[in-house]
Amino acid sequence: MKTILVTGGAGFIGSNFIKYIIDKDVNIINLDKLTYAGNLSNLKDIEESTNYKFIQGDICSKDLVSFILQEYNIDYIVNFAAESHVDRSILDSTPFYQTNVIGTLNLMDCARNAGIERFLQVSTDEVYGSLGTEGKFNEETPLAPNSPYSASKAAADQAVIAYNHTFGLPAIITRCSNNYGPYQFPEKLIPLVISNALADKSIPVYGTGENVRDWIYVEDHCIGIYSALMNGSLGEVYNIGGESEVSNIDLVKNILQLLEKSDSLISFVKDRPGHDLRYAIDISKVNNELNWSPNHQFKDGLEKTINWYLTNSDWLLSIINGDYKDYYKQQYSNR
Ligand code: NAD
Ligand code: TYD
């Protein structure tokens, strides 16, 4: 039975990942600093499981990470822990480089010392930069990040590749497109639109709303990560995508329609500086080598997600009524 250290397991994707693997034959240690994005209530229904343990702490701490690797005989590390929101990286990039780069380096140094079997770095398609209207990212696409967030993730990816090459660190990288689904913090587009629409608040669409994202239902991403962790080849990169390209404006209108709200809530606001036009992933490699493809069509995933937010309004309200208010004011009041 393998013991997996999941970092950032109280965040959106990490908590979905833990719920996905909790019934498998694994032990799980969840190390999370509990920043504004970390929320232990995401894990309420599994927190008593005998194969699960939560530890609050920072992936940048050498003492803590070394202790955990030894004390719990960790076999695999899956690194979700990150600062993950592009807009926040434009307001202040320092924590992004601290956690996403220095934190990843620290995990890898500790992993080398402990001799762990596998290190999976959860990365993003944003490291490839922006596409024009044609083409898709594959694993050979050169890294060309544009935002402070994506540059920090690309720096971490390069460090993982260097550690694999130089020290033989048994590492794998997955790069995924935009996720959506239960427990996503409402600063990201889909939950923000759902949350504002339910409150009849205006919905800020950056620029003209023509930007395109390739949306993936979070559970499909988790299945892809688990598959890469268990069956992926060491030293390889695997792109994971939803095969669901949608422009922001179409997406917003789609959500409003499903919630039976008027398009008049839409407000076109000042564009994000350096806003990437389009992301799209070629999934041939994961499909051929790991037999993975997304299970959800965008339409079904979106309906499931909206229903989840409707039945979990307490979860949403507890965030919206907390510190999130200050961020929202800072981000949108002068736009
Ligand atoms: P999130 O912001 O919801 O969660 C991040 C988690 O990391 C939080 O629980 C936070 O408390 C924790 N954390 C932050 N700094 C930490 C530190 N120094 N030490 C320990 N824990 C720390 O992010 P997410 O959307 O769940 O993304 C998870 C990972 O997946 C990130 O690495 C992100 O780059 C990547 N990713 C996200 C998407 C997406 O669409 N959300 C797409 C592709 C890749
Ligand atoms: P986001 O969820 O922040 O993901 P990312 O920037 O990592 O792709 O944003 C998704 C898209 O939605 C992106 O093109 C920016 C846009 N967007 C808006 O138009 N308005 C908003 O209020 C937010 C948060 C995002």
What features would you describe in this structure?
With 335 residues, the protein is of the alpha/beta class. The chain is built from 12 helices and 13 strands. The chain has helices spanning 12-21, 62-71, 86-91, 94-114, 148-167, 189-198, 218-231, 248-258, 284-290, 298-311, 313-320, 324-332; strands at residues 2-7, 26-32, 52-56, 76-79, 118-124, 171-176, 179-180, 203-206, 212-214, 216-217, 237-240, 245-247, 266-269. A 7-stranded parallel β-sheet has the order 3-2-1-4-5-6-11, with helices on both faces. Helix 4 runs parallel beside helix 5. Bound molecules: nicotinamide-adenine-dinucleotide and thymidine-5'-diphosphate. Thymidine-5'-diphosphate (TYD) binds next to helix 6 and strand 8.
List keywords for this structure.
alpha/beta, two-stranded parallel sheet, 7-stranded parallel β-sheet, 335 residues, binds thymidine-5'-diphosphate, binds nicotinamide-adenine-dinucleotide
Cα-based radius of gyration, to the nearest Å:
19 Å
Ligands in the model, by name, code or SMILES, are:
nicotinamide-adenine-dinucleotide, thymidine-5'-diphosphate
Which strand order do you get reading across the main beta sheet? 3-2-1-4-5-6-11
Mean pLDDT metric: 97
Ranges with pLDDT <50 over ≥5 residues?
none
From the N-terminal CA to the C-terminal CA, the straight-line distance is 52 Å
